[in-house]
Predict the 3D structure of the following.
Amino acid sequence: MRSFRRAGGAFAAAALLLLSHSPLASAAGAPQLLLRQDFPDPDIFKTGSGYLAFSTGTGSGKVPVAGSPAPEGPWRVVGDALAAGPKWAKPGGGFWAPDVTALADGTFLLYFAAPLAPKGPMCLGTATATKPTGPYQPVGDRPLVCRPEDGGDIDPQAFVDSDGTRYLLYKSDGVAVGPPAAIWSQKLGPDGRTLTGPRTELLRADLNAEKKVVEAPSMVKTPSRYLLFYSADTFQSSGYHTSYASAPTLAGPFVKADAPLLFTELLGGRVDGPGGADVVDGSIYFHGWLDGRRQARGLYRLPITFPDDLPRLG
């Protein structure tokens, strides 16, 4: 797989135009709208009886949770997964991009991002529960990850490797006069809350089409490689898209794919700004703006397979 790391803006725009009329566009099929309401940054969790989805805070709750017996639905919001905010978080600051993972002791861990009180950057925190739906109780008086040099840390995602080792993936926002946004991997202890060793940079926003933004990591392990799905560009834009990069090991080096996997033109305009993707059990779930406006992002789904250890939609 070749990198398009050196591609300029004109090349990237041409690639998008070509892909929108290619067989790949037809193969993607029509995305299924699962929730026609605000449900951004979806995290999908498979249970013994179906599926759960968690989202960034909306009018439905601090961390809305939806449930369904099957990937294709029917999906409905069933409550608020987070019982209360942590002591370190700014009151009323909101909770972003949650991620739920199961621990070996049978409990469940929720990762989330929230602003540090009183006027600090975004930081990562945790909460625990005895059921995957919650209620999750915050853990600790301090954030799990809050690095001043990052300009904010958001979009946590747990990844458990084939040997059982736990990792936390997340985004550093970057700063106006420093490096652009990056995605990191941090090894964790078995409790999912103990940082072990140094973190590893997996990729950085270094392409014109990314507009200095990479975020929303989601890792998939195939027999021969690690696939890191991520979003790029600004989330308010119709240019917001989902890409992926691959590496032979979790430590990298990750090589970006030649072209985005999901973008507005590829989906025939049926989804505006597809991003925040999560890949679970043969489906890729993602959000997109509803009804041509910038007020709510619905939850969508497409089937995904991995022939030759590379993603294929439809």
Observations:
- The two ends are 21 Å apart (CA to CA).
